[in-house]
Amino acid sequence: MATLLLRLQGPLQSWGTRSRFDHRDTWPYPTKSGVVGLLAAALGRDRREDISDLAALRMGVRVDRKGVLRVDYQTAQGVLAADLKAKRDVQSWRYFLSDAAFLVGLEGDGGFLRELHSALKRPRFPLYLGRKGYVPSPPPYLPDGFLEAPLVEALKAYPYLGRGRPQGELLLVLEAGEGRLVYDQPSGPFSERRFAARYVREEVLPQEAVPEGPPRWEVAHVG
């Protein structure tokens, strides 16, 4: 079994699971629907296309920097009411994570993951972190992100995304048969907006168990 790792890092991120109308929430780490959407964009798939092969991958997340939860308060004037006659002003609260960094792993067939690895390097559509205005920086593509290793082993062995060792324990989130319930499992094309439940298991990863960062290739090419 192989694993593909990607880095989701940027000034703003939002991973909603219950967003409806004027309240847009965010989960504390990337959702599976959000990550599958990012990979589908990298492959150049339309919202109406089948994504069952992406949804079947097992996902895990290492929270290298959890960021700060913030809210963006917005208003809109002249919104058409339900009776299609009157217009009214509306308010909106949009939650997001500021300055967070996540290492995401996807476990599955090696051939398919190699294809995804190449797609992340040269994505067909723009990639974003949960919302279209939230662009990644640095890119999700990791040159050494494809590994012939199980998901848990790959997430634990990859260097910390920051410099040196983490300042404290890290949260490790793994897709499992039981645990915390999340409604973020895509069960149809994104145009149909159908999502099912899945379970994740949350573990604490001691800081001394995480290799020092950043990755060697980043030191050699970025400094």
Automatic annotation (TrEMBL):
Entry keyword annotation includes Phosphoprotein: no
GO molecular function: RNA binding
Keyword hit for Cell membrane: no
InterPro entries linked: CRISPR-assoc_prot_Cas5, CRISPR-assoc_prot_Cas5_N, CRISPR-assoc_prot_CasD
Keyword annotations from UniProtKB, A to Z: Antiviral defense
GO biological processes: defense response to virus; maintenance of CRISPR repeat elements
NCBIfam families xref list: casD_Cas5e, CRISPR_cas5
Protein name: CRISPR system Cascade subunit CasD
Organism: Thermus aquaticus
Gene this chain is encoded by: casD
